[in-house]
Amino acid sequence: MKRLYVAIAFLAIAISLCVFEQYTVSTTYSKATAYIDNAIEQTDKEDYKAAKKTCKQLNDFWGEKQKYMTAMIDHGSLDEAGVTIGSLEDLADKESDSLEDELINAKNQIKSIHDNQKITFGNIF
User: Fold this and answer.
1) How many other CB atoms are there within 10 angstroms of residue 90's CB atom?
2) Distance (Å, whole) CA 49 – CA 39
3) Which of 25, 32, 87, 98 is 20 to 30 A from 7 in CA distance terms?
4) Cβ-contact 123, 116 below 8 angstroms
5) Collapsing DSSP states into helix, strand and coil, what is residue 103?
């Protein structure tokens, strides 16, 4: 009977970790996308000071969430997105024409991470 309780405990732990991972990835994706969309709007209005502030907030947010996601997600894709996000503030400071392109690139990288972590039949098998 003790074996059954241990098995149920391990199953409960595994399910809890899965729920935590899905919640973390989903909320990180939605909040990071909101920051990026806001920065794109500011760049379109040529308000680079506000875009720089938003990019800094995005970078801080990503740094905070990345330490949790590193345990659950492929490091290569996280690091790639982190490098792109890290360069956005500098591009906004220089008022670079490529800022909007890099924001879109960061958004696509984050979407790719989100899509790869969803629980779907194709991702499991």
Assistant:
1) 13
2) 10
3) 25
4) yes
5) helix
CA separation for the pair 64, 7 (Å, rounded): 33
Torsions phi, psi for 21 (to 5 deg): -65, -45
Structure tokens at 20: 């935590």
* CA–CA dist 90, 4 (Å, integer): 56
User: What does the alpha-carbon distance between residue 93 and residue 102 come to, in Å, rounded to a whole number?
Assistant: 14
Distance of CA 43 to the CA centre of its chain: 21
User: What is the C-alpha to C-alpha distance for residues 109 and 35, in angstroms, rounded to an integer?
Assistant: 14
Name the packing angle between helices 48-69 and 75-93 (round to 10°): 160
